[in-house]
Amino acid sequence: MHPHTIVAEGLAFPEGPVWFADGSVVVVEIRAGRVTRVLPDGRTKTIATPGGGPNGLALGPDGALYLCNNGGFIWSDAAGLMIPGGAPADYGGGRIERIDVATGRVERLYDTVDGHPLSGPNDIVFDAAGGFWFTDLGKHRATGTDYGGLYYGRADGSGVVCAVHGPNMNGVGLSPDGGTVYAACTQARLLLAFDVTGPGTVAPSALPALPGRVVASFPGYRLLDSLAIEADGRIAVATLVEQAGICSVDPATGEQEDFAFPDPFTTNIVFGGDDRQDAWVCLSATGRLAKCRWPRPGLRLAHYG
């Protein structure tokens, strides 16, 4: 078990952590439909209540938070764990929202791409130009599944495009030089890399049904969730259920280094602190936020100071 302290408890399935220079970390609470600031002493303050299923979160170039809203889940409780499931009865589609940090005002930016509704937007990362890549995990219903993919949006609401359709993708991140976008396929247990050819475009694959290239694959029921990038380019991807924790993957060699955490739904990691070696990890099914020291610094994200 990687050494850590618990900085907050009682959260309603926290994900999407964003580190702020004042030492606070903003998370979403998917089950409660809210966005919450966790102060260094563990106290929490509500920033906004967008409803639905707030999921991935990123700080934009304008200082606002940009939110992937998956539209909500059906929830079950088992052995003290919160477990997300399929689309709820009041599911109204997925969307990308902009949140004013000071006022809590929520503005809907996108809910369709080329006339097709977003299903379950999941994770988001900004590039140096001020646009953002985001994933869509799709949506499970009793009668079938809506498929998602990899998308790119402009922060001013002027346009959104689909880069890759088909695989239900979860975590997303950019290489330090911005030339590669990584995405984690939860059920397929694949960490994929795509060569960026422009805002919202990636190099084509020989087989469109098998997009990108495989950086790493994982056996058994070791499902993949969100990810963050280390300063040296390694990919820190959250792994669920079996061997739950954070796995740091070398994109050049595929070498894997495991950091175990005590929650089968260890879903997210964010780097911060003066040296970017402080890390906050979401222990989502038990409603906790953990803090630890990481052996290497995390990548400084675009538009952070």
State the gist of this model.
With 305 residues, the chain is mainly beta.
Top keywords for this entry?
305 residues; mainly beta; Neuraminidase; 5-stranded antiparallel β-sheet; 4-stranded antiparallel β-sheet; globular
Separate helix tally: 0
Point out poorly predicted stretches. Answer: none
Structural class: mainly beta
CATH topology of the domain at 15-219: Neuraminidase
Described by the principal axes of the CA atoms, the overall outline is globular
CATH superfamily placement of the domain at 15-219: TolB, C-terminal domain
Mean pLDDT value: 95
Rg:
17 Å
- The proportion of residues forming helix, as a percent range, comes to under 10%
Strands, total number: 31
Bin the strand percentage.
over 45%
CATH architecture annotation name of the domain at 15-219: 6 Propeller
N-C termini distance: 33 Å
CATH class of the domain at 15-219: Mainly Beta
The biggest beta sheet is recorded as: 5 strands, antiparallel
Structural account:
The protein has 305 residues and is mainly β. The chain is built from no helices and 31 strands. It has strands at residues 5-8, 14-19, 25-29, 34-38, 44-48, 54-59, 65-69, 75-78, 81-84, 95-99, 106-110, 112-113, 116-117, 121-126, 131-136, 139-141, 144-146, 149-154, 160-165, 169-174, 180-185, 190-198, 201-202, 213-217, 222-229, 235-241, 245-249, 256-260, 266-272, 278-283, 288-293. The strands form 9 sheets. Strands 20, 21, 22, 23 and 24 form a 5-stranded antiparallel β-sheet that branches. Strands 1-31-30-29 form a 4-stranded antiparallel β-sheet, with no helix packed on it. A 4-stranded antiparallel β-sheet has the order 2-3-4-5, with no helix packed on it. Strand 29 (266-272) and strand 30 form a beta hairpin.
